[in-house]
Write a structure and sequence with these properties.
It contains 12 helices and 15 strands. It is α/β, with parallel strands linked by helices. It folds into 2 domains: 179 residues, Rossmann fold (3-Layer(aba) Sandwich); 122 residues, UDP-galactose 4-epimerase, domain 1, CATH 3.90.25. A 7-stranded parallel sheet has the order 3-2-1-4-5-7-12, sandwiched between helices. A two-stranded parallel ribbon has the order 6-15. A two-stranded parallel ribbon has the order 8-11. Helix 1 crosses helix 6, helix 3 runs parallel beside helix 4 and helix 8 runs antiparallel to helix 9. The radius of gyration is 20 Å and the shape is globular.
């Protein structure tokens, strides 16, 4: 099976690439070739810049694929280009959407693929919804062979997943905990959430590639381990051996003073979710998540300790967090 990944070096896609190679898939990666540490050496690299669409057309003009996965598309314009480019070049096009598209607030905490999609709080999610709508319309009208996948919070070696931190500089949060600084947990920390390790996600995802029954279908792929946000932060503390100094702050308050953080809470992480993974398990019977959150955090920290270039501290993020805490404590004192 000949598969093209647009991207292929991100937290999720790198793990999927690795499993594809293990399963003997003929994998091509289209990217700039800059993130060499995460380019699988057994994949075939087509080096190009997705922002240069004419160049992309030229590089792929003589290619056809059994499956194309666009890991990077997040606007309707991206999807319109993909439809134009790949409508006669692939038997299956996989769009990476997001579980944040599900309605906020939820009418039922248990999320299935039939849960309505609507998110007035987060532009990122609204863009993903618009992309899905374009693809579903193209499938219904023209038979464009789309499969939609909605990951939730998925992490791996380069990420310590949390709600209020810089996920690209994960040691920022770890440093705050180790030095005894307060860390924010939104609300009272009792809302439910799901963290999925990228190696587990890959099992479900790879099982959809080339699966004719998955054409025209939508899936989320997550762990079945459900945690509160208090548990999530205390598990991180347990792994590093330091009890986190948690301060609980209402989500609306956070959004008032730091909307760049608040929209991702109101539109995603502040809503309790439990995902029903029956559909992906039905289509991919071998899908089974085995990496518990505590084990996944240990894996991430062990990897980060061996790769100091990924351990930079985000001082600007720290300043924003300190500002929110100061505003809240001042308001509380009054």
């Amino acid at each position: 099976m000949k598969v093209l990944f647009i991207g292929g070096t991100g937290i999720i896609s790198a793990a999927v690439s690795e499993l594809c190679i293990k399963k003997g898939i003929d994998l091509y990666l289209f990217n700039r070739g800059l993130n060499t540490e995460f380019i699988n050496k057994n994949a075939k690299l087509i080096q190009g810049d997705i922002s240069n669409r004419e160049d992309m057309k030229s590089l792929l003009k003589d290619e056809t694929f059994d499956v194309v996965v666009d890991w990077l598309a997040f606007t309707p314009e991206d999807i319109k280009f993909d439809i134009e480019l790949f409508k006669n070049k692939t038997k299956q096009f996989v769009f990476i959407s997001s579980a944040s598209v599900y309605q906020k607030p939820l009418s039922n905490y248990l999320v299935t693929e039939k849960t309505p999609i609507s998110n007035p709080y987060w532009k990122y999610a609204r863009n993903k919804i618009a992309c899905e709508e374009l693809l579903v319309n193209e499938y219904n009208k023209e038979g464009f062979p789309v499969t939609i996948v909605r990951p939730s919070f998925t992490y791996g070696e380069t990420l310590i997943p949390a709600a209020i931190t810089n996920n690209k500089k994960p040691m920022t949060l770890i440093n705050r905990i180790k030095t005894g600084k307060k860390v924010i947990v939104h609300g009272d920390g009792s809302s439910l959430w799901v963290m999925t390790h990228n190696s587990d996600f890959a099992k479900g995802f790879v099982g959809l590639l080339g699966n004719e029954k998955a054409i025209g279908e939508t899936f989320h792929i997550t762990s079945d381990e459900v945690l509160t946000w208090n548990q999530i932060f205390r598990t991180i503390g347990k792994v590093i051996g330091v009890e986190p100094n948690i301060i609980h702050i209402p989500t609306d308050f956070i959004n008032t003073y730091a909307p760049q953080i608040g929209e991702g809470l109101l539109g995603d992480k502040a809503t309790s979710v439990v995902f029903d993974n029956s559909k992906i398990k039905n289509f991919v019977p071998e899908f089974n998540c085995t990496v518990k959150y505590e084990e996944g955090i240990r894996k991430s920290l062990n990897w980060l300790e061996l790769h100091p270039k990924y351990c930079e501290i985000d001082n600007e993020n720290n300043q924003i967090i300190d500002m929110i805490i100061a505003k809240y404590e001042t308001a509380f004192e009054q």
